[in-house]
């Protein structure tokens, strides 16, 4: 799988670790920055990761900031991106299986490295369940996105 990853300064350390972890698991990693702990703005990196997925440069994306919340909010402003913040493995795989997310947001200041690794594996190994109820619900989400209301 091709995975785009990006982070702000607060998420830099976790991003660096996960980049190596994901590559070691056999995935291709597109690192979209940041490249240090110097203060930067999380929306820039959330947008870069989301745009990489939308442009088919990556199959899925991961965004990391201090709380995970800001990155998720910013990423979800892009039409076609469905980003969920996960601090546990259940949310990570369920959000793919039921909601067909294509971006995962992680909280570097809340989530430890070992747990983050488990969350990432759960996210990357999950697949959307193509049952009528999940397709129906996803279509309603897509309709909201199209209408912007």
Question: If you had to describe this structure to a student in words, what would you say it looks like?
Answer:
The chain has a single domain, classed as 3-Layer(aba) Sandwich (Ribose 5-phosphate Isomerase B, Chain: A), CATH 3.40.1400.10. The protein contains 6 helices and 5 strands. A 5-stranded parallel sheet has the order 2-1-3-5-4, with helices on both faces. Strand 4, helix 4 and strand 5 form a beta-alpha-beta unit. Helix 1 packs across helix 5, helix 2 crosses helix 3 and helix 4 runs parallel beside helix 5.
Supply the key terms:
149 residues; alpha/beta; Ribose 5-phosphate Isomerase B, Chain: A; 6 helices
Short description:
This protein is α/β, with parallel strands linked by helices and 149 residues long. The chain is built from six helices and five strands. The protein has a five-stranded parallel β-sheet, with helices on both faces.
């Amino acid at each position: 799988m091709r995975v785009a990853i990006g982070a702000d300064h607060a998420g830099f350390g976790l991003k660096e670790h996960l980049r190596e972890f994901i590559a070691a698991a056999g995935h291709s990693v597109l690192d979209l920055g940041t490249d240090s702990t110097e203060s930067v703005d999380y929306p820039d990196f959330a947008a870069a990761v989301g745009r990489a997925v939308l442009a088919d440069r990556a199959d899925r994306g991961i965004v990391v900031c201090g709380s995970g919340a800001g990155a998720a909010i910013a990423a979800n402003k892009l039409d076609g991106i469905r980003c969920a913040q996960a601090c546990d493995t259940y949310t990570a795989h369920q959000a793919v299986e039921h909601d067909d997310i294509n971006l995962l947001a992680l909280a570097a200041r809340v989530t430890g490295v070992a747990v983050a690794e488990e969350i990432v594996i759960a996210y990357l190994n999950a697949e959307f369940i193509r049952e009528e109820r999940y397709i129906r619900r996803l279509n309603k989400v897509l309709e909201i996105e199209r209408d912007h209301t």
